[in-house]
Amino acid sequence: MTQTPMEGPMSTDHTPAPETGTPRGRSIEIDAPPARVWELVSEVRNAPRWSTQARKVLATSGPTALGTRSFNINRQGPVFWPTTSRVVDFQPERRFANRTGGHGTQWIFELEPTPSGGTRLTERSEPPAALVAAVRKLTSALPGGRGGTRGSSSSSSTPSSPSSPSGSLHRIKALAEQS
Asked: Which InterPro entries match (predicted)?
């Protein structure tokens, strides 16, 4: 699965965190219980604390729950853009998913307790099949395009890139381990 660029790297202790790429996304071990990690990832208003793109999140109701809608202001470099989203999966301390308006990509966080009392947090995105097909068609039509096949992703989607989704995981880890 091709990951959609989302975040930049961030770690307050500058110690590399154990992180792995899996077919289901990117994961990180956090030295905090699932309840603490859940507090951070399941409240949509917290996204600006750990996302390098989300600048402001305005939710339509009280605490985040299944069906909560939000209006978001995002930024990457000099570019700002608005999005909307809706919580489509809300399983306390297990799974949280937000579907963005417009293109319909789902951003998913899955939490698993570790034997040490910590949490393995996995982040992934699932773009709709129609979006993936359109991007493949467009890139194959460009000079040098490969149709979005595996191995043709730009450097912005590699794990060491500032746009790698793992940046959010590092920020969540730092925040969860502070308390």
From this structure: Polyketide_cyclase/dehydratase, START-like_dom_sf
